[in-house]
Specification:
12 strands; globular; mainly beta; Jelly Rolls; seven-stranded mixed β-sheet; five-stranded antiparallel β-sheet
């Protein structure tokens, strides 16, 4: 398959039909290894304006996925390789649910559809995480709201907050002040 690069972390298909095999996943892993954040994304849709967005995403262990929610968007995760905790929060930062996800071979949940407009974050429990994400488009950055009670990626507090997230359990308020 041929790709069209949008950034070092993001590629789109250059051909149709779009197919994904181990070869494309290996390519994505190789791309991720060469980026400063260790991440890469293969967007299967043709354009950010499409109404359906499907992406194969690679994140390394230790990647900070800041708590966020999407306005008027549906979103689902299907894990292919690795394990992660999907943490769901209410609007003030209280953990409502921790869903431990693993790949199909783990025997546990490998798929989750996120409730509408729900703050969520990922804590990656494996060396790398490869997942298929589906959401509705078009992509509008302003429709992603980052939790005001969480540090932004790149802030010095983000690493400490990621450790805090890793220990969060339902009913616990997981904010920097905790």
């Amino acid at each position: 398959m041929n790709f069209r690069e949008v950034s070092p972390e993001v590629v789109y298909p250059a051909d149709e039909p779009v197919t994904v095999s181990r070869q494309e996943i290996a390519y994505l892993e190789q791309r991720a290894a060469g980026t400063p954040r260790g991440r890469a994304r293969f967007c299967c849709h043709r354009d950010p304006e499409d109404i359906l967005h499907e992406m194969f995403i690679v994140h390394p262990q230790g990647a900070y996925v800041r708590p966020h929610k999407h306005l008027q968007k549906l979103e689902s995760f299907h894990l292919i390789v690795g394990a992660a905790d999907l943490i769901l929060f209410d609007d003030v930062g209280t953990v409502t649910q921790v869903i431990t996800l693993g790949d199909f071979a783990s025997g546990g949940p490998f798929y989750c559809r996120i409730p509408d407009a729900c703050y969520h974050a990922l804590v990656i429990r494996s060396e790398r995480l490869i997942f298929h994400e589906t959401t509705t488009g078009p992509f509008r950055p302003e429709e992603t709201l980052f939790a005001p009670w969480s540090p932004a990626e790149g802030e010095p507090e983000a690493a400490t907050y990621l450790e805090l997230l890793g220990a969060c359990r339902p009913g616990q308020l997981c904010t920097e002040e905790t």
